[in-house]
Amino acid sequence: MRIGELATRSGVSVRSLRYYEEQNLLAATRSTSGQRHYGDTAVERVQLIQLLYAAGLSSKTIQDLLPCVETGVSDAYSQALLLAERDRIDRQMADLAAARRKLDEIIDIAVDPTQPCARQQVVA
User: Fold this and answer.
1) What tens-digit pLDDT sequence spans the chain (124 residues)?
2) Phi/psi-derived region of residue 82, left when phi > 0, alpha when psi is between -120 and 50, beta in every other case
3) Residue 83: inside a domain, yes or no?
4) What integer pLDDT is reported at residue 120 of this predicted model?
5) Residue 114 lies in a domain
6) What is the dihedral of CA 58, 51, 41, 15, to 10 degrees?
7) Which residues contact 110 (CB under 8 A, 6 or more apart)?
8) C-alpha 9 chain-centroid distance
């Protein structure tokens, strides 16, 4: 499939796909006219890359992990990297949960009519 079709099917911009190629996360063959062509598994690969980016992984970390994902075989380095990333995400989730609890406290104060904060009028 060509780059436009991959972009449509994966929900990712053409620009992002080109970036993935620059970062060696995605590979394409080139036609004689220079057009990119991707294999059947490219959509799933792009979706995985997107998921890993959304989890906060860097392109370098993703590049290091993709061979493990492709082959199903990991070494000590990729196992340690995976565990470290999971721990980082766990810490991030805990920090977000604490921020949400604090926001809930502020909301409770803001909607309580007995609190000064709730009685103030916002002047536009």
Assistant:
1) 999 999 999 999 999 999 999 999 999 999 999 899 999 899 999 999 999 999 889 999 999 988 888 888 888 988 898 899 999 999 999 999 999 999 999 898 888 878 766 555 555 5
2) alpha
3) no
4) 57
5) no
6) -60
7) 117, 118
8) 18
3-state secondary structure of 55: coil
How many structural domains are present in the chain?
1
Q: What domain range includes position 3?
A: 1-56
Residue 9 lies in a domain: yes
Residues 6+ apart with CB under 8 A from 9: 1, 43
CA distance 102 to 86: 24
Report the 3 state secondary structure along 72-116: CCCCHHHHHHHHHHHHHHHHHHHHHHHHHHHHHHHHHHHHCCCCH
The domain that holds 33 is classified in CATH as 1.10.1660.10
